[in-house]
Amino acid sequence: MARKQRSNPGSGSTPAVVALEKAGTAFTVHSYDHDPATASYGTEAAEALGRDPAQVFKTLVAEVDGALTVAVVPVSGSLDLKALAAAVGGKRAAMADPAAAERTTGYVRGGISPLGQRRRLPTALDASARSHATICVSAGRRGLEVELSPGDLAALTDAVIAPIARG
Length: 167
Known about the structure:
The chain is an alpha/beta fold.
């Protein structure tokens, strides 16, 4: 039986939360008041949750050899596009067009989750996730995060685990 906790009951459900519930995965939902003027969604989440930015991960969508690919990296670092391409067996990577990322995942920028996407994309998770018992990722809406084990996230997304972050 999955352990599901909500740090703010009534924070609502998203496709990411539904996917976790359906999989029977243990997770915790955390919500916070999102500031629309924020410059960095990931940094805002880490600060609002009182978490180390190395434990809060952002979901980025890139194009690797023309195919959309998800990269999950700590908010304390940045995505190494060359490392991402290598991790998924590609040659060249560039950040995806935000509109294409939103359309394909079904989420808005700043709220893209690696879970419950409209169309499941190849995913790479930064290897630093392994150094944490749990990590936080977007739950599919700005101001909503889910905390789960990196192993569960990798299993649910069929993620390749590789060093894809800098900093």
